[in-house]
């Protein structure tokens, strides 16, 4: 494949693979997806995503077709691949991976039969190249360098990490796409927007990974401060967060409205009209940032320099020692009040 990628034309078919089920990782991939869309405007682009994240891409203009796959079921993937993927064979397949490598997704890339198959060198993950890449790309880091060992094995004295959206863009550039496009990174459904409340403050105390959860009493203290300043504060609870709202409500000793288990498009509409979102390092934090909602992520062991959401109005608060317990309510409030005082950050 040439450095500029395939020749753009109406007959060009491109497959983009991001079938893992982490919502935040998918949204960090959107700048690269959009970059490829803008480079190959006339191509037919098919985006492969996990079932859990389909709501984050269905209805978005960055692909012509969405195919939902479940890469956790390897035998189901194998049967689908051996039967052949529907539609004409693509000219180009791009396998987006960041810190994790999905063997079943890699096999889908191989079985696509694409003439050009592009992804990060599997050796970086200490894996065999199951995608049979025609262009393995070196995993990037700061200042154009490359990582030589997987992220979990980096020492504390290693170079600062490259943001994951830039990691994904390295693959887009490898196929001839350009720089990161401007927001928006998620366009809410206008019909859902019409029913979303305005200027609410959403606090999300949960996280699928329990070690990503800021203590309940800290969230309660933050809620108390915001309610005392006259803001309309709502709790947010997802399917993996059971018990978190009960814990923060008990600490707060006050009842606030709760949004539970809403679908991605409905949440996105809420966030697009919200005054503020505050949450742990989770998928909803990335969704809020992608809509343009003023957002604050609270971090401990994960580094926001690498994992903060993409968006114009995102702030990060992290304990200096990398511990969530070291973040005080005042630290978050000091980040929140300037955002609440600004004009709307959301992009149209």
TrEMBL record:
State the signal peptide span. Answer: none
Q: Which Pfam families match?
A: Glyco_transf_9
PANTHER family xrefs = LIPOPOLYSACCHARIDE 1,2-N-ACETYLGLUCOSAMINETRANSFERASE-RELATED, TETRAACYLDISACCHARIDE 4'-KINASE-RELATED
| InterPro entries, sorted | Glyco_trans_9 (IPR002201), LPS_LOS_Heptosyltrfase (IPR051199)
Designated name of the protein: Glycosyltransferase family 9 protein
Q: Which GO terms describe its cellular component?
A: cytosol
Per the UniProt record, which residue ranges are transmembrane?
none
GO: which molecular function terms? ADP-heptose-lipopolysaccharide heptosyltransferase activity
- The organism's place on the tree of life at top rank: Bacteria
| Key words, A-Z | Glycosyltransferase, Transferase
Q: Which terms does the UniProt entry file under GO BP? A: lipopolysaccharide core region biosynthetic process
């Amino acid at each position: 494949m040439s450095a500029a990628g395939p020749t753009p034309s109406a007959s060009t078919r491109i497959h983009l693979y991001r079938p893992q089920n982490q919502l935040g990782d998918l949204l960090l991939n959107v700048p690269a997806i959009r970059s490829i869309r803008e480079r190959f405007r006339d191509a037919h682009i098919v985006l492969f995503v996990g079932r859990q994240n389909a709501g984050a891409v269905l209805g978005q203009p960055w692909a012509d077709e969405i195919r939902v796959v479940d890469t956790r079921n390897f035998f189901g993937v194998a049967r689908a691949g051996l039967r052949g993927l529907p539609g004409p064979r693509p000219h180009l397949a791009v396998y987006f991976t960041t810190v994790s490598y999905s063997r079943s997704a890699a096999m889908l890339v191989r079985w696509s039969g694409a003439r050009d198959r592009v992804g990060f060198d599997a050796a970086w993950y200490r894996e065999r190249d199951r995608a049979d890449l025609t262009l393995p790309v070196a995993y990037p880091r700061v200042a154009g360098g490359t990582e030589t060992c997987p992220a979990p094995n980096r020492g504390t004295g290693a170079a600062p990490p490259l943001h994951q959206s830039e990691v994904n863009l390295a693959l887009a550039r490898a196929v001839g796409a350009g720089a990161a496009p401007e927001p928006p990174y998620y366009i809410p459904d206008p019909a859902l927007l019409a029913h979303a409340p305005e200027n609410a403050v959403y606090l999300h105390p949960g996280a699928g990974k329990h070690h990503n959860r800021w203590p309940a009493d800290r969230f309660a203290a933050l809620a108390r401060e915001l309610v005392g300043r006259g803001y309309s504060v709502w709790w947010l609870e997802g399917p993996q967060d059971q018990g978190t709202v009960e814990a923060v409500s008990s600490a707060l000793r006050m009842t606030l409205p709760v949004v539970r288990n809403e679908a991605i498009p409905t949440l996105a509409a809420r966030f697009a009209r919200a005054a503020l979102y505050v949450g742990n390092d989770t998928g909803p934090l990335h969704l809020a940032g992608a809509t343009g909602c003023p957002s604050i992520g609270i971090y401990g062991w994960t580094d926001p320099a690498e994992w903060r959401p993409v968006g114009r109005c995102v702030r990060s608060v992290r304990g200096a020692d990398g511990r969530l317990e070291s973040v005080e309510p005042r630290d978050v409030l000091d980040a929140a009040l300037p955002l609440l005082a600004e004009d709307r950050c959301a992009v149209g």
